[in-house]
């Protein structure tokens, strides 16, 4: 029987609630004859900073490296003062993950501004405008350094083209040909985006079956809203991808359903795109779907496509039926009720 060790970093706010729901779904999968899981729950986040003075303990990072995969809840990074630790940055750098994959797709039964959207943002996550290199010039001026390297750009581009190739096979019948759209602001960021685009073009040459195009970030944001069906895989530097993936989530079914995976050569971790939601923390009403779908992405990454399909299908079944929904989707179900419904749908599929 296949067994995986999962390092869980529940984090802050609704993080522990939604990772608990995802674990219940994974355990139901195991009971129904799927792979089984052991969990190492590790501290990280603002709560850990308050308790220990540092938000990302070395031991948590070591446990993440030792596990087969990592599932993360949410981190209240805005509350952590400079020097108090950078849990997401430390995870992304420490696990050498490089790029994040963030799919956005309309789901039957969930109201969304665009029924046509079916795209994936592949976003660099360790450098760019979020390099974490900032300094005060004097009392009245501050700088952030936008770092772009050929190595990180090339890795992210390769992940984007691999994602487009996999989608061409699996999903997306609307696109006859897979397409990667690289996003930039070359008119202003001549050196940094010049290097990024050069790396993307070099990788594109290895994928003649995938169409390659470029878009300015501002035009891309507008076109995603006006013509979402045009987009297949969007390749972006860190900050541009951060914004575009939230636009994608907004056009699809909202942050309650937005899953993501940060992928590297050796390690990977999976997390919902949403934040800690302090307004509903502790009430047991958070939508667990984004974390459950992140767990499905994790299973796909672990070489368990049937289990991933079953969980994604179970979430879709529950949403299509529409009886059990959390508040963000217009219902009044609790997280536990939504999780029970997903588990029942999962059992029906297995
Ligand atoms: C995300 C988040 C993080 C990021 C923040 C919290 C640092 O917005 O994962 O999208 O942009 O890296
Ligand atoms: Mn974000």
Key features of this structure:
350 residues; Isopropylmalate Dehydrogenase; 2 domains; 10-stranded mixed sheet; two-stranded antiparallel sheet; 42% helix; binds manganese (II) ion
Give an overview in words:
With 350 residues, this protein is α/β, with parallel strands linked by helices. The chain folds into 2 domains: 1-97 and 256-350, 3-Layer(aba) Sandwich (Isopropylmalate Dehydrogenase); 113-251, 3-Layer(aba) Sandwich (Isopropylmalate Dehydrogenase). The chain has helices at residues 15-31, 46-52, 58-66, 87-94, 150-170, 190-204, 217-226, 238-251, 289-301, 305-321, 335-349; strands at residues 3-11, 36-41, 69-74, 99-105, 118-124, 134-138, 141-144, 179-184, 211-216, 233-236, 259-263, 268-272. The strands form 2 sheets. The chain has a 10-stranded mixed β-sheet, with helices on both faces. A two-stranded antiparallel sheet has the order 6-7. The mean pLDDT is 95. The chain binds 3-isopropylmalic acid (IPM) and manganese (II) ion.
